[in-house]
Design brief:
This protein is of the alpha/beta class. It has two domains: 123 residues, 3-Layer(aba) Sandwich (Rossmann fold); 68 residues, Arc Repressor Mutant, subunit A, CATH 1.10.10.10. Helices cover 52% and strands 12% of the residues. It is built from eleven helices and five strands; from the N terminus they run βαβαβαβαβααααααα. The chain has a five-stranded parallel sheet with strand order 2-1-3-4-5, with helices on both faces. Strand 4, helix 4 and strand 5 form a beta-alpha-beta unit. Helix 3 packs parallel to helix 4.
Amino acid sequence: MPGGRRAVIRVLVVDDDDLMRAGLRAVLSSDEAIEVVGEAADGRAAVDGVRRLSPDVVLMDVRMPRLDGIAATRELVGAAPETRILMLTTFEDDDYVFGALSAGASGFLLKRTRPEQLIEAIHTIAGGESLLSPSVTRTVIDRMARQPQPDLGASRRLRDLTPRERDVLELVARGLSNAEIAKSLIVEESTVKTHVKRILAKLDLRDRVQAVILAYETGLVRPGI
């Protein structure tokens, strides 16, 4: 985050269920490093809330009235790029997952996630990382497998990457962590982190989620290969 990471992570909770919002607030309030600065019951109120409160993280439901979570995320990525979006839903449908990630969300969790995992996810997202589990990576891969031809326009964006950066991007797209990539390439983990930062900067991407999607769109990585 610009100016350094804040000591307290400011979170906006967005869900159309009153009891769910209350439950999420209670879970997050158990962590002294997290402050719930507001709530919203639909996507339109979420967008307004972000503009008013400038939270670090939005915990966003997918299916809501007026404006759904995916549409709200897409709007917020342009209006408040410093705010990170963590999608939380009861639905495991790949359309929701892919739609949320393509819209610019930095992570995707199911509502049955344990409280400690939710808190950890908030810290991960606030720290500038993405929450990309193997199951979510699999969803992206499966969706990209249905697209028969690489996006040639997107492929041109890879020209500025060095050979090593392309190697790192490929491994990121296969769902490897920085530590796993470092082991595979026989380099320090700090070196991998530097490569990832440069890749995101060169390709003008927000996080690893978008990097994975771009890698499959360009054909750099093919499902099953």
